[in-house]
From TrEMBL:
CDD domains: ATP-synt_Fo_a_6. This is ATP synthase subunit a, chloroplastic. It comes from Nitzschia inconspicua. The chain crosses the membrane at residues 20-46, 88-108, 128-147, 184-206, 212-234. Pfam families: ATP-synt_A. It is found in: Membrane; Plastid. Its main location: membrane. PROSITE patterns: ATPASE_A.
Amino acid sequence: MFDSNMFTLLSEAEVGKHFYWNLAGFLVHGQVLVVIWFVVVILLLFSFLGTANAERIPHGWQNFMEAAVDFVTDIAKDQLGESFYKEWIPFIGTLFFFIFGCNWAGAIIPWKLIELPEGEFAAPTNDINTTVALALLTSLAYFYAGLSKKGFGYFKRYIQPLPLLLPINILEDFTKPLSLSFRLFGNVLADELTISVLTSLVPLVIPLPIMLLGIFAGSVQALIFSTLAAAYIVEALE
């Protein structure tokens, strides 16, 4: 009886379903776009609160935001080294805060209370289009890093240490965004599916540890994504 109910709930779970907006002939995932803009507004609000009335001795929101910036600075410095990290802090920091905000928005905010004609509000990172876009942006960043430092000599890496490795080195540039996007997408989607099924089968108190674990996992995924992005960039620079 339990197994049949579980499979029924899995088949009826709305995680991954979308309602669409037609914008200038393009179909856009409506709830994904709404939650993305919600996260962007929250991040901008935090930035404003942290920089308004800045003082030499930070306190309150300024102290919180400086600690957050120090954290992403350490990520960039650890991966990129003293020579390169400063110019890449904005990119690495934006990646981390955006993914962190999206994951936490899906894990903390009770979006299920808002009924939609189809689908439901959830973390934007449980949509493969969002994670692929972030992964492709990372690919463009490390190509830009390599070309800006080495010019067209950057492409010598494809025939090093042996020209026979050309197909493998080219394939590597396709596997990097694939692994980045599917790792983030798979973890966030699996977490939301697990919580959706558990909250439908048992009282809310029981899934709470899983929800807390999902919040922690969302933070770790943001850290992993931004760390790997920095590692790919330094690989191109070196």
